[in-house]
Amino acid sequence: MTSEAQSSVIRRLDESLINRIAAGEIIHRPSSALKELLENALDAGSTSIKITAKEGGLKMLQIQDNGSGIHKADLPVLCERFTTSKIKKFGDLAALTTYGFRGEALASISHVAHLSVVTKTKSDSCAW
Question: At residue 5, does pLDDT exceed 70?
């Protein structure tokens, strides 16, 4: 048996590569990111949404809305995969009334782009 045959061909992928591949399944182009961000804004109860894009969203894609905002305590996990406020258990899927629920949009965007979030809830005295 050659040393090549003895070495493993199947290997575990690096976590960073896994996340970028998964992001590619959700974020195909800037319009995909825009769709996900608009759904987040609508799910947050926004009645006003401002979109700013530079070079078709390739250089910058900014969403400003008047939705409910994200609590400061939730910011540390905001861009982790499968973090969501929409469901807690499998049975919750049957009663969904939102566009998104998986908690993958911001995680996916953060793996293929520079992402910053500024948020403020009604009870916050300032934005975070």
Answer: no
Q: How many CB atoms lie within 10 A of CB 21?
A: 11
Per residue in 70-111, pLDDT (tens digit) is 999 999 999 998 888 888 899 988 999 999 777 888 988 998
- Cα separation, 128 vs 15, in Å, equals 28
Q: What global pTM score does this model have?
A: 0.79
CA-CA distances (angstroms) from residue 38 to 43, 54, 118? 8, 17, 15
Please count the residues of the chain: 128
| Alpha helices (runs of H) in 27-77, residue ranges in sequence order | 30-43
**Kind of pairing between the strands at 60-65 and 49-54:** antiparallel
